[in-house]
Structure formats: structure tokens, C-alpha cells
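Appendix B. Chain record.
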Amino acid sequence: MSSSFGRLFTVTTWGESHGPAVGVVVDGVPAGLPLDMELVQKDLDRRRPGQSSITTQRSEADTAVLLSGVFEGRTTGTPITILAWNQDAKSKDYDALKDVFRPGHADFTYAQKYGHRDHRGSGRASGRETLGRVAAGAIAKQLLATRGVSIVGGTVQVSDVVASGRDWAVAESNAIRCPDSEAALRMIERIEAARSEHDSVGGVVEVVARGCPAGWGDPTMEKLDGEIARALMSIPALKGVEIGDGFAATFLKGSQSNDAMGPEGFRTNRAGGILGGISTGADIVARVAVKPASSIGKAQETVNASGEAVTVAVEGRHDPCICPRVVPVAEAMLAIALADAYLRQCALLGARSVMDSGAKA
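C-alpha cells predicted for this chain:
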């Protein structure tokens, strides 16, 4: 099982939903980077369960414990390890599901692949695994900030409610993390209605990287948009990714879809900040499709480990909509992909400098 992402900025998550702890090892961070653990904790708090009435009521402090890679507030160049202890797992809630394949979950596929699975809260397939991603993403954000790159995100759709505004400051002022305050109220209504029906709803989360310079990425097999898509699609419960206009571009003509250029730069950004797999210098814009949460109290048909037909209603503490907690995870994975692209660009420029020096000699 691959639990790592990145070539030079390498992130490896570990731990299970109902194990002792979850965490991450981040390798490749240059030495000397001032690392603010309060910013790491801030992002972990944004992902933390139990933070509002529309998220799971599992109560976890998710306090970041720094084990290695930082001395006197600066990175040492060695692997950074961060963990958070699991403190509110109620494994007995899952005893009745030990031999039942829950619809929408990875129960069946894990059993087919490994022949053995951790049924407690989905084990590695749980959204709890994303804590390590968010911690790593917070480090990546601080590295990117040295180049003037910042990342924002929010929920732009829940069910049939679509945000029209993009005020990213507003996104942090409401429970759904929507950048449109009016749409946020209607989104919360949809979520509460689904919860009352013992059901769930999905939506769309948008993330934007601002200040990314032109030239990052690769023109062929490891295109920047491809690496971003891979990073985002590795998040649990995501079923689609689009960059820039994405699927909406299929309704346009080339004359409408192309981003015109002038002396001042690109006049539009339908490409989402990437052309030919390489960043253009415009905002990098990505959206992800978040499926409705699989754990619902409504009875559903399934089978057990013996192949017998059974009915299951998943009890316990679950999110009726995952979108607000996906926002910091999607931001993190975008940051991780860009941090890796940044270090790879640094390596390219270093190699170019060596070649230029050799030519002059």
C-alpha cells in the first residue's frame, strides 16, 4: 500500500482511525525554514471533528506533537514527524459491522485486496488518515510562503446550492466554509435536512493557489495539473477533479476558451493557471467533487463476508456532509503538490546553473 506522495517534498502518512495515533513524516524540507507550529495547529483545528453541528461529533483535540526535524524553531533538513493521539475512538460501535460490507465504503475492496481488514472506523480508509496530510500541508504552505505563494479554499456547492461569490475571508466565518454568505445558509439547510432523514449530501470544494510563478511543472508525464489532480484524487471520498474551467470548457469554442494575452499578461484564466503542464503565473484553480458521506443511518442492502444478503444502517457519529472538513485537506494536498514542484524547479535551475558554468569554463 502506498502511503507516500512527492519526489523531493515527500509526505508519508501513517496510523488508523481507531489505532493509538495518526501522523505524518515529511522529508525533503530544506534546512533553516522557520516553522510555526501554531500555523500547523490552526489547520489541524480546521479539519478537526466535532467543530460544528454539521460535522461528526467525535471529540478529538488533534493536538500536534512534534517529534523530529525541527530545532530552535527551524527545520534541520531531516525528516519531520508529527503525530496526534486518538482519544475518542469508540471501537465497540463497529462490532456489528465486522463481517458486513457497508455500501459506499472500502470494506469490500480492502477485503478482496488484503484478505484482512480493520473494520474499526474504516482503518486506513477513514477520513482520520487525512490529519497527517493537513499537518504536512501546513508545512508546505510555510515553505511556499517564502516564494509569495498562498492557498485558499472553500465549499462552492452543496447538493443543488451553488455559491456565486468568492470572498475567501467569508469562507472562514461560517460552518460550511462557503465563500458566499447567502449560499452558506442554504447549504446548511440542505445538510440539516439530510441529517434529519438519516442521509447525507455531497458537494464541490474549490482551492486556489495565488502568487505561483510561471514555469513550475513538467511538460509531459508529470504535468503540474496531473500531479495536482493525483494529489487531490488521493483524498478519501473524492470522485472528480477539474482545473480552471474544467468540464465547462466543453461547452465553449476555442475562441472563447483560450486565454487572451496582452502586455499586462493573461486577460482571463480559463486554463486555471496551467498550460502544457506548466504554471502560467496566474492563479491555479482546482475544484473537487465530494461524494455524499457513505456512513448513513438509513437502511441499505448489502452482503456480509459470507456473501449473504443483509440490511445495514450505520449508527454512530458521522458527517452528514464532508465538504467543510475536506476544505483544509484539499488546500493541504494542493500545497504539497506545489511544494514538490517548487523543489523540483529549484533542482532544475541548479542543474542549469551548473551547465552554464561548465559552458563558460
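Further analysis of this model is presented in Appendix C.
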